[in-house]
UniProtKB/TrEMBL annotation:
The lineage of its organism: Bacteria, Bacillati, Actinomycetota, Actinomycetes, Micrococcales. It comes from Arthrobacter cheniae. This is 16S rRNA (Guanine(966)-N(2))-methyltransferase RsmD. Keywords: Methyltransferase, Transferase. GO terms for molecular function: 16S rRNA (guanine(966)-N(2))-methyltransferase activity. CDD domains: AdoMet_MTases. Its EC number is 2.1.1.171. It holds the Pfam family Cons_hypoth95.
Amino acid sequence: MTRIIAGAAGGSTLVSVEGNGTRPTSDRVKEALFSRLESYGVLQGAHVLDLYAGSGSLGVESASRGAATVDLVESADRAAMVAQKNADLVNRVLGWTAVRVHRSKVETYLDRVAPELTWDLVLMDPPYTVDANGVIAVLEALESRLAEGAVVVVERSARTPEPPWPAWLERFSDKKYGETRLWFLEPATA
């Protein structure tokens, strides 16, 4: 059972995607991630992009904790339907549409979305079948899409080696939680 941990919708139970096609982020990892993001001051009023969203649990947690907008991008039909249910739950609690679901491949979404749209926080939890080159390709597509002071969080298996990040991004932190590793990135300073 996955839940929203804190914020306006804190304690609400989320719908999970049946089967083993997705890897939900554990509540332990989610709590640690959002504690860190709140300490960085990037959540309040943020525009958030949740790529490979699965059930949308990270994105809806962002909205519950004060993000202004959240875009959930998920290509699998079943997962996108679950993400929509979770988005509807949080939007009802908030009283407005903060969370939107985009049923699309990540690359297609980034190619189609308005070029002037930028995000303050990008959450990226690709399937393990997406290799380092796939991760880098998506990060490259984000280069002109990050707001000043933006943070990118990449979630991977703790057994996966650190990818060679694009030159325009710097890793400023990483943390291992059991079988999960979170990489924290920001645009490189000149």
